[in-house]
Amino acid sequence: MTKPGAPADGRYAVAVDHLAVAERFVAARYPRADVAIVAGSTARGERTPTSDIDLLLIGGELFEAEDQTSEASTHEFEGEVFEVFAYTPAGFDEWAERGVAQHRPVTVHMLVEGTVIRDDGRMPSLRLHWQRVLDAGPALSEHESAFRRYVITDVLDDLRDARDPLEQHLEASILFERTAELMLLGDGRWIATGKWLPRRLRNLSSERAERLTVPLLDRDYATFAARVEDELVRAGGRVQSGFVR
Which segments constitute the Polymerase nucleotidyl transferase domain (predicted)? Predict the structure, then answer.
């Protein structure tokens, strides 16, 4: 029988089962964790057949070594694969601030957006603090903007000169990533890697994302280069001669 408010396709039951597995995993492998958060596709109810369970752990006594403040590890438990990101409070702050400085605060997103399965009472204040950081968005300095445009200018010229199909493919892939990052940062949005980069680009503007991705997927590199040039101009233009790195 489906619970009230649960989707008729049974996704609610699947999500609950995976959260229960995560709770048992934490109890068995990280019993001294003060905070445990399930993140990623499991928390969003978007699991695929190959999805693992992303788990953020915070605790003052997580590690045996007194000087250890962080750990990223992979575990198998009850037929599930867990990707664990474990930190002391100081370790979490260090890695979170590093991610913010790099404009890609992965652990902060996990903390703010994930599903809490263990909390010693600190989560409300933690989430309030880091939500404010996420809401503020990344700060792109003039020098970093110029450097990013310098890199795009250089790779763009290489793509236009390339004749080897493999070289064209690689240069275009690099250009897409660098250009998408510049587009996001120019609008005060956090960047990402892998599948999350095009997703965030589409959230920024489906029209601009389509203008960039359609010729790329069609391997129409001349049109793709022209679209990159458009975004480069929008961000401030080409950077080349006289730029000091």
Answer: 25-70
